[in-house]
Design brief:
Low-confidence stretches: 156-196
Shape: globular
Mean pLDDT: 79
Catalytic activity: L-seryl-[protein] + ATP = O-phospho-L-seryl-[protein] + ADP + H(+); L-threonyl-[protein] + ATP = O-phospho-L-threonyl-[protein] + ADP + H(+)
Structural class: alpha+beta
Order of helices and strands: HEEEEHHEEEEHHHHH
Largest sheet: 4 strands, mixed
Number of helices: 8
CATH class: Alpha Beta
CATH superfamily: MHCK/EF2 kinase
Helix content: 40-55%
GO cellular component, one term: basolateral plasma membrane
Number of domains: 1
Keywords: Cell membrane, Disulfide bond, Immunoglobulin domain, Kinase, Membrane, Repeat, Serine/threonine-protein kinase, Transferase
Function: Protein kinase that recognizes phosphorylation sites in which the surrounding peptides have an alpha-helical conformation. Regulates cardiac development and cardiomyocyte differentiation by negatively regulating Wnt/beta-catenin signaling.
Subcellular location: Basolateral cell membrane
Radius of gyration: 20 Å
CATH topology: Protein kinase-like fold
């Protein structure tokens, strides 16, 4: 728990260093530190300690990416959390995603990290790889993504889909498709073929 949150905190510090100087960006989300405490005389010898957050606790993103949260989409903190996720995803070439962003205002705690199966630079997260796939499919860029110059995930996905669709339309029949178009191109991840 400490390792995951403090790793995410380090990414948040780099994100802040890039975002804060941008004109009009404003305050940046901060992931608070968490500490492991050893209590040898206690029945439970280890505990975590962190700053108490006072105020309305909001989940800006959830671990599996399925929940649609209006506070996430419409609030400044929510949009900046989504931008932070996009920034980390892009900086790690899609290998790592900070997720389960929640807290009070711009102070976040109890975050999760998803990595590809092999991990990222020796680090393995505590969330399923499916969270990365869901983020890639569901993320909608906002003005903060644009201010940081992040590449739209939708545009990339739509271009791949359009190119694949055109290949399929230009072929004379389905038997030719099976022989000439690789399976991955014929059946994109988010597309369920009518052949099945």
């Amino acid at each position: 728990e400490c390792y995951v949150q403090n790793t995410a905190r380090e990414y948040a510090k780099i994100y802040a260093a890039e975002a804060e100087p941008l004109e009009g960006f404003g305050e940046v989300p901060e992931i608070i530190p968490i500490f492991l405490v050893h209590r040898p005389a206690n029945n439970i010898p280890y505990a975590t300690v962190e700053e108490e957050l006072v105020g309305e606790f909001v989940k800006y993103s959830v671990r599996d990416g399925k929940e649609v949260n209006f506070l996430r989409r419409d609030s400044e903190a929510g949009q900046k959390c989504c931008t932070f996720q996009h920034w980390v995803y892009e900086k790690t070439n899609g290998s790592l995603l900070v997720t389960d962003l929640q807290g009070v205002g711009m102070k976040l705690t109890d975050v999760g990290i998803a990595t590809l199966a092999k991990g990222y630079k020796g680090f393995k997260g505590n969330c399923s790889i499916s969270f990365i796939e869901q983020f890639r499919a569901l993320h909608q860029c906002n003005k903060y993504c644009e201010m940081l110059g992040l590449k739209s995930l939708r545009t990339t996905h739509q271009k791949q889909w359009k190119a694949t669709s055109m290949k399929i339309k230009n072929l004379p029949n389905s038997s030719t498709i099976k022989k000439t178009v690789p399976k991955k191109a014929r059946e994109p991840r988010d597309f369920i073929s009518s052949e099945h």
